[in-house]
Amino acid sequence: MVITLFILVGFTGEFQVFSRASTPVTCQWDSYGSWSECNGCTKTQTRRRSVAVYGQYGGHPCVGSAFETQSCEPIVGCPTEEGCGERFRCFSGQCISKSLVCNGDSDCEEDSADEDRCENSESRTSCDLDKPPPNIELTGNGYNELTGQFRKRVINTKSFGGQCRKVFSGDGKDFYRLSGNILSYTFQVKINNDFNYEFYNSSWSYVKLTSAEHTSSTRKSSFFRSSSSSSSTHTSHTSEIHKKKSHHLLVVQNTVEVAQFVNNNPEFLQLAEPFWKELSFLPSLYDYSAYRRLIDQYGTHYLQSGSLGGEYKVLFYVDSEKIKNSGKVLKNY
């Protein structure tokens, strides 16, 4: 009996500790670190602060940015203001091959400087097609291995590299021109055999579940489509189901690939101009704030290969009233 009493007292003490931990904790910033080296291109420097105490148990989150920027006087020049040697220099400062100048394609991604001053006698068309495959820009996005999220483009998917390589889509019955950074691109539909089946006894239970999932998912950014179009589609879809509340539902889901791609080797890739400029703006001496900011925007990796596609969902409606009137029994799947 004495041993039991001591055990109960011990547990009571533990529960009191946990109850005190549920008090709201407000987020607190740590102090800023030192300023980075003055950037010769932007004439600015940055410093960073980290979170000292994270908001918990309903406490207020930290407000404001982790970075602070101010103007400064640089002591080093800007790399983008220097020449390109034998290559052509875009207005942004990026260098491209002279063979890409006046070829009818805008190989200077942001300013089209390579086609700006071309006389009719100089201009030559490198291809009779300038339409890239749908959603080709997704193949150039960066990827953050630390967070598992896709980031801004690191590869220039708009430049054809002076080449005229075409690929045919049997589904769209049309030809598309491949980017110079794409090694191979194939239109081939692939569907996994692993179908996901879900059965709902009423449409109300389905609407309740999907509404909760949709509310949670819209808080996260979507990589393949905008949240606004997703929201309107979802609202219209659930409204239709609300009208059919006497139905049982069988939901079949699966993923489908529509195209597969392989990007070129790193030494042959042309960088996206915004990413290239961010790289050229990095301080010559390592600065944690500047490099961390670059990773936050563009990620840690580029896509060597992958596939484009999405998910599809099919809903089968079973009329409960008709089955009941027919005398048949509806069995669970």
From TrEMBL:
GO CC, any one term: membrane attack complex
Compartments in which it is found: Secreted; Target cell membrane
MACPF domain ranges (all copies): 123-333
Highest rank taxon of the organism: Eukaryota
Record has RNA-binding as a keyword: no
Ranges where the record places region Disordered: 222-244
Protein keywords: Complement pathway, Cytolysis, Disulfide bond, EGF-like domain, Glycoprotein, Immunity, Innate immunity, Membrane, Membrane attack complex, Repeat, Secreted, Signal, Sushi, Target cell membrane, Target membrane
Family per similarity comment: Belongs to the complement C6/C7/C8/C9 family.
Known function: Component of the membrane attack complex (MAC), a multiprotein complex activated by the complement cascade, which inserts into a target cell membrane and forms a pore, leading to target cell membrane rupture and cell lysis. The MAC is initiated by proteolytic cleavage of C5 into complement C5b in response to the classical, alternative, lectin and GZMK complement pathways. The complement pathways consist in a cascade of proteins that leads to phagocytosis and breakdown of pathogens and signaling that strengthens the adaptive immune system. C7 serves as a membrane anchor.
Protein name per the record: Complement component C7
UniProt source species: Leptonychotes weddellii
Upper lineage: Eukaryota, Metazoa, Chordata, Craniata, Vertebrata
